[in-house]
Amino acid sequence: MAQSAVPSAAQPRESAAEPRPVPLRLPVREVLPWAVFAVVLGAVLIYFVGAEQGATSLFGGTWVHEFTHDGRHLLGFPCH
Amino acid sequence: MMRSLLVRGMAVGLAAGALALLVAWLYGEPQVGHAIAFEEAKAHAAHEAHEAEVVSRTTQKTAGLITAMAVYGVALGGLFSIAFAFAYGRLGALGARATAGLVALAGFVAVELVPFLKYPATPPAVGNPGTIGSRTTLYFGMTLLGILATTAAVIVCRRLVPRLGVWNASIATGAGFAVVVAAVYRITPKPDAIPEHFPATVLWDFRIASLGVQAVLWATLGLAFGYLTERAFAKRRTATAPA
Predict the structure, then answer these.
(1) Per-residue pLDDT, B140
(2) What is the mean pLDDT of residues B100-123?
(3) What pLDDT sits at residue A74?
(4) Shortest CB distance from B116 goes to which of A35, A68, A76?
(5) For chain A, how are helix, strand and coil distributed in percent, rounded to 5?
(6) Which Pfam families match (chain A) (predicted)?
(7) CB distance A16–B234 less than 8 Å?
């Protein structure tokens, strides 16, 4: 990216980043285990906020449904 | 590297959830209140027994809503950081801020906009409890379609860029995405049950508030995550640059 001619002494942090390097890539091999774990955990968390004791129930009763009731409606999940 | 991105994603997700909570309180809760008042007036007119409260309204509005927003924000933030890790350095020469902004925009379209346009958020009293099973399936199915179609669009766009250039490749994939989503909208059922005399303004305001909650959540996630990551990368470069 072209940068305007600013006196380099004025902004040492900016000048250190110049010339702008090509962004590094994180190898897929390194990201994949985190990705699998995060997707599994994220899915479980979002399920409990958005759907438990609605169409499907893992626990009996309606407490989870009622407790997260307003969040479900406002986040856009089908509630009841 | 991945560790710091994930921690940052969850922290920013929590902050995004807090801002979304503010929007939910200011704009969403009044409409939820109107909808519940309508529901109770209807039940009263039909001489139905008052539903036993499992959780009080006050708890739903405070602890319940805070918990839901916090958990949702942290989960989304963590997933966002993973998506960012895959995207960074693979979308041309975009920096951290621009990559985070684009990932947030794509996430908002995939997870919120695509399902919302067909199955918008509904306030209490709207929706037939008998169809909750099919509505839940359709809603999550539409979310899945949004994620798959958006991922496919990004992959196709990257392949078209060398031949068409960034501008034309983006238009072509954007148009293709819209056609696919519109075709699915046309063939999926719409089990929307709005009770008679439900105030249209409450329904509209509730849906706009819900969209606003999600927009603030995703915008905060994308912008704050991008800003913090760009700053962290600049520090690393300064630290590792030869003196």
Answers:
(1) 95
(2) 96
(3) 95
(4) A76
(5) 50, 0, 50
(6) CbtB (PF09489)
(7) yes
